[in-house]
Specification:
By secondary structure, this protein is α/β, with parallel strands linked by helices. The chain contains 15 helices and 15 strands. It is about 45% helix and about 20% strand.
Amino acid sequence: MSIMKLIWAAVGLALGLSALAGAVHAQECTTKIGAVLPTSVDWGRPIAETAQFAVDQVNAAGGAAGCAIEMVLRDTQVDPKVGVDAAKALVDLEGVKLLLGAVSSGVSMPILTSVTVPSGVVQMSCCSSSTAFTKLSEEGKTSGLWFRTFATTGVQSAIGAKVAKDKGYGSVAILYKNDDWGQDMARLIAANFAAVGVEVTASVALNDGQPSYRAEVTEALTSQPDALYLALYPAEGTAAVREWISLGGSQNMILANSLKSDEFRDNVGMQYLGAAVGTDTASPRSESADAFRAAYVERFGSEPNGPGLANSYDATMIALLAMEAAGKDATGADIAAAIAKVTDADGTPVSADTAGFQQAREVLAGGGTVMYQGGTGDVRFDANGDVSAPAVVWSFTDAGTQEVEYLSLNEVDAFIASLN
């Protein structure tokens, strides 16, 4: 072998050993984070899988704050009591300082007030939209530990009002889930529909697990409204719509994003959903959103069409970036304070992937800040841990959903301002 070949072989060996040493170093310790997500429902499993995808990418970058990350996942079953018990186990037994979740404001709220805030644990939710969290923060009751990557119910309710106005509906009845999220939605929907001249003829709450919703549906149907607004989850949503259709209710329906579900579509039947449209927050038309979509398709072999997927990815990645910025053995308060360092509008832009996390590590180590650019765009939290977002109107197809209308962040903000 020539001298030059020997030199290059030695260099290659050194680089290989260096990379191996870095990988070994990252595995010398493990930091657990908690996740409380509804893995027992069909639309909840992809949310959890997307969070794990972000964890895997961070571990490929060497982990966070020098340690490999282990996401300890617990199923909430979209049940407040189950969610609280799961969160307590993660905090008390696993010792996590960061909790991802939950889905549904009615589950996230009791976890926040009875588990994470009292224990000083950061709670980062992908999918809780109630404005009750904003109020709680304004009252100083979240201790700065609450963040969410999903826009508040104000966006969905406003765009729902726009849909009703654009379709010329004169009257709408509301069926809503009787929890924090549903109550918040019902209140906002009624106000926003009134602002655009649409009469709300009835607003009826549905409780979980009832054998029948005929009485509630009959109450909503009494005034024969032009359309029905549904702020429900798939199980009660399916039962309610079946009753509604069987009693002669209109197939004109406006759906909250919680019903953007194959389970709901298949159980109700496309023959009854042809006139139904839904609303959701949306990823911006940006390079970072496109990059997330491409990475998701490569990982899972399908489009990220389910609710909360980009939000789940961003929640996880931002939380882990904050752990990197806060350093090893950081407290929940330290991690919460570091979130501003990784979502700084004036910081160095970093991509949502392994390479972006490595770049962020270098910038943070040098005393700088970064601007995370992810599946939902440039995520920026306000003083209450809230974000705003573009919106989309969608409809069901035989294969999934399709976009009907896209509204940019500026268009959403302008329409909401017009309501006020």
